[in-house]
């Protein structure tokens, strides 16, 4: 195999969904956020597995993602799009039977004019200042909007991954103020909000990252493992430099493995220096610049040349790798490249 092997554990994703579902009361529905190709893991495999686990509410970003997901899942589940009803979305929302989560007054007008009987939801901005009607806008249009029977009213927490942030309580209080007594189901929590406790759960929770094994839910079952084949191994002399710009100099005679994976595969340049990969049980440092397609690994301390090295697994999580690049597990996951041989554990048409 010439490229890395990315193993995606669909059983772990289903187990994570069930565990997150069990954290809220039976009256609270647990959806699944599968935007951006299920955080890069392949929505055509992930969403049907979640459906089999019992999930009936799926969240995507764009109307197009919603329509593709509809083809995958068939007519039964509800599919909600966070970008709402943008100019040009009307036909796609209709054909895909996708619920736009309206996020501005303009969108509300567009929706009620162009698809008056098509279900819609509403996003309220409770302090993140990203998407959603501001409190003053909501005050102005709530009556009209509620008369049109929205199927879900939601907001999004900006700091749910920091349980002690005062922003969580402030957003909760404002969401309660804005939605007290309304008929439609309400939703505030993604993964981080589920962990904050039942006050944040309302009628629907919308976990994403927790399904895929990432923080802030530290107890998630690990979902991905990634192995890169070794292309070639060779010795370098003391003082030889490795990779672009010669940023690593051999302190002594060293043995280097060049492995098949680089920044085009989601292994960020910023991972080196600092990241280790595993040759069996032995950590080996990445040395020199990560290139587009390859990177160098110091294997001087190994007894034999490895055939492959491991970048991700249960012990080397996306968050651990992300920390070396100054980013978060979400970005590592959604950057995993298209070149990998993707294998799915728990896929009914594959072992
Ligand atoms: C991405 C997203 C989610 C899921 O968030 P996670 O932190 O991945 O659980 C939920 N709601 C909205 C509005 C989102 O954008």
TrEMBL record:
<dbReference type="Pfam" id="PF01168">
    <property type="entry name" value="Ala_racemase_N"/>
</dbReference>
<dbReference type="InterPro" id="IPR000821">
    <property type="entry name" value="Ala_racemase"/>
</dbReference>
<keyword id="KW-0663">Pyridoxal phosphate</keyword>
<comment type="pathway">
    <text>Amino-acid biosynthesis; D-alanine biosynthesis; D-alanine from L-alanine: step 1/1.</text>
</comment>
<feature type="binding site">
    <location>
        <position position="130"/>
    </location>
    <ligand>
        <name>substrate</name>
    </ligand>
</feature>
<feature type="binding site">
    <location>
        <position position="292"/>
    </location>
    <ligand>
        <name>substrate</name>
    </ligand>
</feature>
<dbReference type="InterPro" id="IPR011079">
    <property type="entry name" value="Ala_racemase_C"/>
</dbReference>
<dbReference type="Pfam" id="PF00842">
    <property type="entry name" value="Ala_racemase_C"/>
</dbReference>
<dbReference type="GO" id="GO:0030632">
    <property type="term" value="P:D-alanine biosynthetic process"/>
</dbReference>
<dbReference type="InterPro" id="IPR009006">
    <property type="entry name" value="Ala_racemase/Decarboxylase_C"/>
</dbReference>
<dbReference type="GO" id="GO:0030170">
    <property type="term" value="F:pyridoxal phosphate binding"/>
</dbReference>
<comment type="similarity">
    <text>Belongs to the alanine racemase family.</text>
</comment>
<dbReference type="InterPro" id="IPR001608">
    <property type="entry name" value="Ala_racemase_N"/>
</dbReference>
<feature type="active site" description="Proton acceptor; specific for L-alanine">
    <location>
        <position position="244"/>
    </location>
</feature>
<dbReference type="InterPro" id="IPR029066">
    <property type="entry name" value="PLP-binding_barrel"/>
</dbReference>
<keyword id="KW-0413">Isomerase</keyword>
<protein>
    <recommendedName>
        <fullName>Alanine racemase</fullName>
        <ecNumber>5.1.1.1</ecNumber>
    </recommendedName>
</protein>
<dbReference type="GO" id="GO:0008784">
    <property type="term" value="F:alanine racemase activity"/>
</dbReference>
<dbReference type="GO" id="GO:0005829">
    <property type="term" value="C:cytosol"/>
</dbReference>
<feature type="modified residue" description="N6-(pyridoxal phosphate)lysine">
    <location>
        <position position="35"/>
    </location>
</feature>
<feature type="active site" description="Proton acceptor; specific for D-alanine">
    <location>
        <position position="35"/>
    </location>
</feature>
<dbReference type="InterPro" id="IPR020622">
    <property type="entry name" value="Ala_racemase_pyridoxalP-BS"/>
</dbReference>
<feature type="domain" description="Alanine racemase C-terminal">
    <location>
        <begin position="223"/>
        <end position="345"/>
    </location>
</feature>
<comment type="function">
    <text>Catalyzes the interconversion of L-alanine and D-alanine. May also act on other amino acids.</text>
</comment>
């Amino acid at each position: 195999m010439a490229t890395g092997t990315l193993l995606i554990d669909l059983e772990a994703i289903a187990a994570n969904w069930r565990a997150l579902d069990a954290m809220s009361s039976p009256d609270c529905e647990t959806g699944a956020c599968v935007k951006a190709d299920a955080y890069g893991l392949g929505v055509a495999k992930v969403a049907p597995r979640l459906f089999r686990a019992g999930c009936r509410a799926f969240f995507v970003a764009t109307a197009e993602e919603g329509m593709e997901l509809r083809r995958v899942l068939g007519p039964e589940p509800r599919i909600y799009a966070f970008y709402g009803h943008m100019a040009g979305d009307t036909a796609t929302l209709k054909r895909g039977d996708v619920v736009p989560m309206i996020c501005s007054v303009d969108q509300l007008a567009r929706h009620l004019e162009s698809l008056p009987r098509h279900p819609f939801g509403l996003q309220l901005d409770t302090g993140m200042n990203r998407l959603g009607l501001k409190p003053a806008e909501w005050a102005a249009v709530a009556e009209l909007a509620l008369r049109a029977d929205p199927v879900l009213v939601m907001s999004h927490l900006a700091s749910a991954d920091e349980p002690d942030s005062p922003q969580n309580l402030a957003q909760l209080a404002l969401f309660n103020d804005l939605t007290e007594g309304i008929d439609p189901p309400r939703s505030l929590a993604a993964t981080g909000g589920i962990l904050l406790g039942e006050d944040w759960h309302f009628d629907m929770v919308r976990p994403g990252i927790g399904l895929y094994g990432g923080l802030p839910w530290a107890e998630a079952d690990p979902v991905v493992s990634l192995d890169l084949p070794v292309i070639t191994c060779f010795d370098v002399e003391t003082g030889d430099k490795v990779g672009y710009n010669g940023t690593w100099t051999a302190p002594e005679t060293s043995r280097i493995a060049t492995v098949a994976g680089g920044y085009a595969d989601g292994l960020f340049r910023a991972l080196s220096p600092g990241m280790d990969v595993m040759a069996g049980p032995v950590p080996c440092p990445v040395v020199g610049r990560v290139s587009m397609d390859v990177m160098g690994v110091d294997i001087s301390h190994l007894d034999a040349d490895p055939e492959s090295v491991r970048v991700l697994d249960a012990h080397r999580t996306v968050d651990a790798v992300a920390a070396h690049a100054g980013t978060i597990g979400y970005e590592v996951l959604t950057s995993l490249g298209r070149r990998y041989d993707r294998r799915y554990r728990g896929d009914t048409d594959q072992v």
